[in-house]
Amino acid sequence: MAKSRAESDKTVFNDEASTTVRFDGTVHDNIGREQKSNIDEQREMNSEDIHTANMKPDAEKAQRKLARYLLHLLHGIYGWLCTQPNVAEFLVFRLLTGMAAASYMSTGGGTVADLLPKEERGVAKAIFTAGPLFGPTGLATAITVLFMHETSPINKFKSKAARLRKETGSPDLRAAGDRQTLAKQLVLYALTRPTVALISLYIAFNFGVTMLLLATFPTLSDRLLKAEGGNYRAERRLIMMMFVSPMFLIELFIYGWTTEYKVHWVVPIIGIAICGPGAVIINSSSQTYIIDIFGHQGAASALAAITLLRNLTGAFLPLAAPTLYANLGLGWGNSVLAFITVAFIPVPIYFYVHGASLRKRFSVEI
Q: Are residues 28 and 42 in contact, defined by beta-carbon separation less than 8 angstroms?
């Protein structure tokens, strides 16, 4: 264990691009050994609900680690191929890039189910949901370094002036606007100005609090589970989802009709703000619920199906927006979407009430 941690620490200092891969693998291996007994117990607990067959879905048969590494590599390659000047090629490779990136969304739930017992998955899923905040990978950085050009006119002139100084041997050649100000001085100058200082503090605090609140929602069911002495019900993952589902309905009506009648711009913004937290909670709560139902044997395949349908809808539904709003306007166009949303509001309520009986009637066979 100590040796593995030492190797991962060494990797952090030597190569940032491979840090995520090696450190992630080391941590997962360590957790897997430490949680082995918990996983064995979990398998015994799930044996009544999950009937193991000889053949498993593709997402369960494949090694999650191998799938991630391979598709991560393909994601980078397709991202590079998106630089093609041809529009058709760009669209094709952009689609392939998104499909490769979906590997983490589909296998991440399986990993959470592999490593953690049910009462601890809420926190892990919250961290997983916050993954996009951790920034791009080393591969994306390498592509940026190789292919991204300078866009600042001042920096372009400074580079040209430096080249001319080297060619002519004249140290007095300077670009217009080159004040020789240190970056440290520029940052200090900006942060000591009230406008930048106060706005940056406010934005930072607001963003941090928002992420903090969203990260704590999935843990609510964990606390309820412990408070009830471990009497587990997977449907408790849907409690927050039931409360926030109507937010989409409210947001669509507010946004659609306030923009239709050209109400002050702050009102549509309020409508969109209502929708944001609800989207995150619905996504996180529903995926955690699926993980608990299917367990370590079937969660990856179930989430793969969900991710496929979700991404296809997200890709093609916006294409209908111009026709929808051109024919119906913003008011009735968004109202149509709101009416469709009404049909989905009872879904988490239904599963919360009848979920246990449905699991017994339609047992998960893998």
A: no
Alpha carbons 208 and 206: distance in angstroms, whole number: 5
Token pair recorded at residue 278: 């609800």
| Contact of 287 with 303, CB cutoff 8 Å | yes
Residue 178 is given by DSSP the state -
Q: Looking at the domain assignment, is residue 18 inside a domain?
A: no
Beta bridge partners of 10: none
The CATH number that applies at residue 116 is: 1.20.1250
**Domain count across the chain:** 1
Write out the residue range of the structural domain in which residue 165 sits: 35-365
- Within a domain: residue 280? yes
Question: Distance between CA 202 and CA 200 in Å, rounded?
Answer: 5
DSSP 134: G
**pLDDT tens sequence for the chain (366 residues):** 434 434 434 333 333 333 333 333 333 333 333 334 343 444 333 433 333 333 334 444 444 555 666 777 787 788 788 877 788 888 888 888 877 776 666 666 666 766 777 667 666 766 666 555 554 455 554 655 566 555 555 666 777 888 888 888 887 777 766 665 555 565 566 566 666 566 667 667 766 666 666 565 556 656 666 665 556 677 777 888 888 888 888 888 888 898 888 888 888 888 888 777 777 778 777 777 777 777 766 676 677 777 777 777 877 888 888 888 889 988 898 899 889 888 888 888 888 888 888 777 776 555
